[in-house]
Amino acid sequence: MASDASVLFHVSDTHFGVEDRAATAWFEVAVHLERPDAVICTGDLTQRATHRQYALAAKWFASLGVPLMVQPGNHDMPYYNLWERFRRPYARFGSLERAVGAEIVLEHALIVPFDTNVPAQLRWPWSDGVVTRRNLDAALARLKAVHSDPRPKLVACHHPLLADEDGRRNPTIRGDTAFAELAAAGAAMVLSGHVHFPFDQVRSRENHAMRMVGAGTLSTRLRRGAPPSYNVVRIDAAGIIEVEQRDFIARPA
After folding, report:
1. What is the DSSP letter of 46?
2. Residues 190-218: what's their mean pLDDT?
3. pLDDT tens per residue, range 23-48
4. Domain containing 44 — which CATH number?
5. pLDDT tens digits, residue range 151-189?
6. What phi and psi, each to the nearest 5 degrees, are found at residue 96?
7. Residue 106 belongs to what domain range?
8. Within 10 A of 33 (CB to CB), how many other CB atoms are there?
9. Measured CA angle at 195 (ends 250, 72), to 5 deg
10. What distance in Å separates the CA atoms of residue 222 and residue 22, rounded to the nearest whole number?
11. By the 8 A CB rule, do 64 and 39 touch?
């Protein structure tokens, strides 16, 4: 039987190793009570990509008991092992991805992964995003393959593709190009994280508009006064997308 809407819990930047245990427990309870169709994490699952942190992350994500899609973030490449960072940057992430699920298919939406990370770049720190032609072409190929599918296409990546406001320096190299080409290819929304601050904007480039939605963090690494948070994304049968931001308010000790 067809459902009225697909429900996706969008979380990001769990940073296992410095996770907020009260916030992750709050999220876990919501998943178990509401049983969303899927959970997606848009990167920075760990703090330093250690084997221990990946084990903690894998155990927690698997415990949610719903379909999962996890994207890598800049913190998910080895920090202490430079040989592995450059030669096999996602080896440890890949183990977690295989453990909890790689891609998801929703009744009323399609999710397209898009990697905005590189092991190193000609600037410091290496944390901000870089769009490579190879990764962008891979996402565009996926969008082309499902072009005739009427369901909304949501792109999932770690770094926001545009600056907070037009006219400001874009910290994601070639992010404007990626935004314009993904929007032109039919993407309706980009889900991201990285900045530890939730946002929901409709932006445009080259006469193509696309919605940008960012999730906060479930870690102790808070920024700009924002509490831990996650998003609930609902897509109905008509393709209308609603986003609810949920903030975690810690109880006084």
Report:
1. B
2. 97
3. 999 999 999 999 999 999 999 999 99
4. 3.60.21.10
5. 999 999 999 999 999 999 999 999 999 999 999 999 999
6. -70, -40
7. 5-247
8. 7
9. 105
10. 14
11. yes
In whole angstroms, give the CA distance from residue 62 to residue 130.
Answer: 29
Query: What residue has token string 């810690």?
Result: 250
Q: Would residue 253 count as lying in a domain?
A: no
Report DSSP state, residue 124.
S
Task: Tell me which residue has tokens 């039919």.
Answer: 186
User: How many Cβ atoms from other residues are within 10 Å of residue 180's Cβ?
Assistant: 18
Polymer length of the chain: 253
Single-letter residue type at 55: A
Average pLDDT for 230-238: 97
Q: What is the pLDDT of residue 124?
A: 82
CA distance 114 to 20: 27
Say which residues have a Cβ less than 8 Å from residue 200's Cβ, sequence separation at least 6: 211, 212, 213, 214, 243, 245
> Which residue is it, tokens 């040989």?
83
Q: How confident is the model at residue 9 (pLDDT cuts 50, 70, 90)?
A: very high
The answer to whether residues 35 and 8 touch, using CB atoms and an 8 Å cutoff, is no
Is residue 252 situated within a structural domain? no
Give the CA distances from residue 127 to residues 43, 194, 227, in Å, rounded to whole numbers and listed in that order.
12, 9, 21
What pLDDT does residue 246 have?
98
Total domains in the fold of the chain: 1
Contact (CB, 8 A) for 170 and 162 = yes
Interstrand relation of 38-42 and 68-71 (parallel, antiparallel or unpaired): parallel
Q: Residues 113-139: pLDDT tens digits?
A: 999 999 988 888 889 999 999 999 999
Give which of 104, 110, 112 is closest to 37, Cα–Cα.
Answer: 104
